[in-house]
Amino acid sequence: MKSEIIAVGSEMLTPWRQDTNSLFLTEKLNEAGVTVTFKTIVGDRQRDLVGAIRNALGRTDIVILMGGLGPTEDDLTREAVAEALALTMRRDASIVAALHARAATWRIAMPSNNHKQADVLQGATVLPNPNGSAPGQWLDSVFGGYRKLLILLPGPPNECKPLFEAECMPRLRSILPARHIARRTLRAAMIPESQADSLLAPIYTTFTDVETTILAHTGDIQLILLCAKPTAEAAQQRVDELAERMEEALDDYLYSSSGETLEQIVLDLLGLRNATLAVAESCTGGLVAQRITSVSGSSRSFLGGAVVYSNDLKTSMAGVAPDLIARHGAVSAEVAQALASGIRQRTGATLGLGITGIAGPTGASEGKPVGLVHFALADAHNVEHVERTFRGDRDRIRQWAAQQALDMVRRKLM
Fold first, then answer.
1. HSE on the CB side for 314, CA within 13 Å?
2. Dist CA 412 CA 255 (whole Å)
3. DSSP 164
4. Do residues 40 and 5 lie in contact, with contact meaning Cβ atoms separated by under 8 Å?
5. 254-256 sheet: strands from edge to edge
6. How far, in Å, are 267, 299, 301, 302, 342 from residue 271 at the CA level?
7. pLDDT of 66-123, one tens digit each?
């Protein structure tokens, strides 16, 4: 079964509001064995709404509309569905009475335009909304000779979500064939998206019953595998088969087989080895420490560190010799190694991580471009060094650098 979610409201076509209900609805639909193949946002124009509804009915089995059920002139979802399916509407007297009773509890007279919230589509079932004035509607209809299901939901999340959970999920489960969706998320670090796809496409394209999605963001690749089968066991087995082959192809780029973040994996590995970590960050400005400490329980393995942005603090907090900075510059392999060794010694950590670079847009010099970052990782016996040059703006360079630093620690602990 395929579905489309249509979010209705011109406000969601501005920079200030966004649709969040569809994330919840997608999760619930997947639980019922329904795949979401399209998500659409439409403004408050009846002609556009009618077109979007007809398009959705032509390509999916279930269409869910959120919003546009209120009392104002621009609340046009009911009218658009009626036009798209050539249906009439009736005004439900019991809903009108409930609206008046609701207004009475607030000791106000109900405006007449609220009556339109009682307009029910021909053949629709009213879905009670205890958290708001606009009820939902459930319509089992025919479009183009095929059975279609339309669900109309209020837009506010505190109304949409509980109504769908209470009224729609039981109905869906009662009419849908038994389908179960299994999901796996694999994650890999510091491999280009194109390289990942060249390794994996020959594998996942042979699994035509598994939907594979590749997401790339600042040094992190997420591979989302979805499979629907009549039983949960069959779906999970098929996803696991594909995941196993992809894991082998990714080799040591792979850091998670179950969707964990890189910082979570680093902390897990530190815990397994009874090791601790401390950091001395310059250009990343504390991003590595922020990511690590976002994980609950990180204090068991992460001792802390310092943001050593100035040369003076590199010396006073991480023990970097001033003459070393003078000879090689603050952005150098030598200073990164001194930061790693110094912070390890100052804190007593098993591992010390040092990062120094040029995040830009200023600060570049001959031989040291914007994006140049030096990383060093020290233990009791030696210091490893990695040099990278990242492209992009200041924020992107810093995000890439934090990812590289965490991956360097992961690889050390593997």
1. 28
2. 13
3. I
4. yes
5. 210-217, 220-229, 180-189, 254-256
6. 6, 11, 6, 10, 23
7. 999 999 989 999 999 999 999 999 999 999 998 888 888 878 877 788 899 999 999 9
This prediction has a pTM of 0.79
Distance of CA 3 to the CA centre of its chain: 20
Helices (H), ranges, 319-393 = 322-328, 333-347
Position 330, amino acid: A
In angstroms, rounded to a whole number, what is the distance separating the alpha carbons of residues 224 and 220? Answer: 13
| Neighbour tally for 411: CB within 10 Å | 17
Contact 410, 403 (CB under 8 A): no
Distances (CA, A) of 39 to 52, 62, 162, 167: 11, 12, 20, 22
Q: What distance in Å separates the CA atoms of residue 99 and residue 368, rounded to the nearest whole number?
A: 69
Alpha carbon distance 245, 403 (integer Å): 25
Quickly list H helices, 164-282.
Answer: 169-175, 193-204, 232-250, 262-272
Structure tokens belonging to residue 384: 């490893």
Q: How far is residue 120's CA from residue 78's CA, in Å, rounded to a whole number? A: 8
> How far apart are alpha carbons 364 and 362 in whole angstroms?
6
Q: Edge-to-edge strand order for the sheet containing 62-66? A: 35-42, 2-8, 62-66, 146-153, 136-143, 125-127
The Cα–Cα gap between 382 and 10 comes to: 60
Domains and CATH numbers, the chain: 2-175 (3.40.980.10), 180-256 (3.30.70.2860), 262-413 (3.90.950.20)
Give the DSSP per-residue string, 78-119: HHHHHHHHT--EEE-HHHHHHHHHHHHHTT-PPPGGGGGGGE
Q: Label residue 386 by pLDDT band (50, 70, 90).
A: very high
Partnered with residue 394 across adjacent β-strands are: none
How do residues 250-309 score in pLDDT, each as one tens digit? Answer: 999 999 999 999 999 999 999 999 999 999 999 999 999 999 999 999 999 999 999 999
